[in-house]
Amino acid sequence: MQQPITEDPLDKEGVLHHLLQQCSREALCACSQESLKFLATLFRQQYPQRILVDPSENVEAFLDTLFEHGFCVQAATGNDDGKFKEELERVVGVYKETFETKEMIQAVESSYLLFPQGHDRLEEDTFQVIADLYHHALDQGGAIRPTIRLCKKREGFSAQLCRRLKMYDEFLRRLHVMENRLASTEAALTSRIEAAESALETTQAALETTQSTLGTTQAALETTQAALETTQSTLGTTQAALATTQQRVKQLERIVGRVKSLVDEAGVNNAINNTISHDELAVICF
Predict the structure, then answer these.
(1) Considering the entire predicted model, what is its pTM?
(2) Is 79 helix (H, G, I), strand (E, B) or coil?
């Protein structure tokens, strides 16, 4: 697959748009409910005014809406094999994971702690706990900027802190999962590249051997062609000599015939002395 995974899932240059253009209705029906729900989320972002049926309630009606508005292309001969469906599920899963992570980051950045009424300042140890959590999250690669505000008591501080800690833990867990997936994908791609390079080297070596053999064969062919030309020339000379010999044989046959006829009429000696010309005798001698 040559198309990249773009930041915008609906980018026409991206892999998801390409897959949706090539995918058949049967392959979409075979996708999981989570994948279809994520496609519904993307559709609502692009067409916020459209009414969309929940895919968990009616998959066929949901797909009809997608095809009707051009979100997907009705491909009567589209890809509906298992590998294509797995690739579509994988790409949708990547975008779904990315969207969930972005939403979590936004939730963390926009959240704040509500402290009990009457606390004009933070205790030193409480502030240190929050600071440690913040720096630990930054070390893990999360762009977290919590905002702390002093407000009237709405909820227990411990409950808010626990909820915040759970949010941090879930965010870090997702980051670790994505990191492991990227590492696994990188290892698989590296292995494929190495295998492809090895196969390319083997193919190049075989090509060089084939080219060398071809050169030897061409040289032998040129030698054979030269010998064939010589043989053809000799054959032409032989054919010319054969034609000359055949002509002389015919002349001899005519002379012999005349001699036999004369012998029958008058005798051998008189026929030779009286009727055979000097030229004919020369031919006989030859």
Answers:
(1) 0.43
(2) strand
